[in-house]
Write a structure and sequence with these properties.
The radius of gyration is 25 Å and the shape is globular. It has three domains: 3-25 and 236-377, Nitrogenase molybdenum iron protein domain (Rossmann fold), CATH 3.40.50; 44-231, Nitrogenase molybdenum iron protein domain (Rossmann fold); 397-426, no CATH class. Helix 14 (336-339) links the parallel strand 12 and strand 13 (348-351). The protein has helices spanning 12-19, 26-43, 45-56, 67-76, 79-97, 138-150, 170-179, 189-198, 215-224, 249-260, 275-290, 295-305, 314-324, 336-339, 357-362, 398-414, 418-426; strands at 3-6, 104-109, 112-120, 125-129, 155-159, 183-185, 208-210, 229-230, 238-243, 267-272, 306-310, 328-332, 348-351, 388-396. With 432 residues, the protein is of the alpha/beta class. The chain is built from 17 helices and 14 strands. 45% of the residues lie in helices and 17% in strands. The strands form three sheets. The chain has a six-stranded parallel β-sheet with strand order 1-11-10-9-12-13, sandwiched between helices. The protein has a five-stranded parallel β-sheet with strand order 6-5-4-7-8, with helices on both faces. The chain has a three-stranded antiparallel β-sheet with strand order 2-3-14. Helix 5 packs across helix 7 (170-179).
Amino acid sequence: MFEQGPLAKLAPRALERLVNRSPGDASEVSDTVTAVLADVRERGDAALVAMAKRFDGADLSKVEVPREQWDEALDVLPERVRRALERAADNIRRFHAAQIPREVVVEVAPGVRITRTTTPLELELVGVYAPGGTAAYPSSVLMGVVPAKAVGVRRVVVCSPPGSEGSPPTEVLAACALAGADRLFAIGGAGAIAALAFGTETVDAADAIVGPGNRWVAEAKRQVAGRVVVDSPAGPSEVLVIADESADATWVAHELLAQAEHDADASCVLVTTSQRVAQESREALDRLLANAPRAQVARAAFANAGAILLASSDEEAFEFAQRYAPEHLSLMTADAERDSRRVRSAGTTFVGGYASVAFGDYMTGANHVLPTEGRARSFSGLSAQHFPRSYTIQEITPEGARGMAADVAELAVAEGLPAHAAAALARAGSNP
């Protein structure tokens, strides 16, 4: 752990390091990503093939994975894994279909009716990024493809890094088939985001890009955000656990380890008002790490951005949580339901000891593509509302026009726009 002890005695620099989780080499990451984007924009598929060789050790003859390969992957997938993916997809579909905004009609004044309605993105294409590298993420395929399809997006393509054999893992291929993706490309990292943003000989330019990734992926999405719609800045995983004396220390340790095993850049913090929970959680974590298959990754994450902090009161704990603005907030407190309303700057909140973040990562139906690095103060997680665009319809009757004309004219003249005033007044005496 890089920090352990009383929260109130945390050195200002250490506190800042916890709260400000942007990578220390942010300028280097930014420069690298800028170069990758430019390379893909200039050389297209050739740049993607070269990057696959350099970063993934894969010799690609082409960047697209044929559909028959996905279907084969789904056929050979163990039945129990397929059932789990199907159950997860169904929950995701149900939850996101219920989020589609309903048409709103308001008569703001007699004869003035405003309608706000929505339509799926009709610019054709949404690109979904599913991470790879040291783990396979079929769940991220579902989290991106299923909501987009649920709201009626016409085409959804997936990009995911290839293994050394030249394609993403079997589970990712199977998830693409199960979720209803339209195309799959064996490309990863910032290069995949560049391909989706600018297009290449093989990859069509997308109108929206969603999905989590490492710091290079997150930075690439940030740099192309002015060109295409992107979701929240979803970088390396984070969890903040708030626990009191009622918490099970072993469960706390499981939550910290579960997120730490994602990535060496993951952030995992416990804030507790209980000295016992602080001590026992650390001991439990040491026991779990001793036999953890991904212990090396997890230990690096704890060393980089891990902490067990003792708060003097629950107020101090929740004030820290509000400032920390975690991707995942786990509440293991005696009144977790009440406490769930105390932190408004979290990507998603898990209420009580039984509500493991793992359930949300895979199965509850809520989306696991969430803002990281404190951006939950400003951004929302991926939802059905990222895919439709909204527009308004304004209906004004003769009565409505007469009722507004004079006031509109006053405002228009005040702004120095007399033609606006004349346009409004011209309707004041019109007949139906």
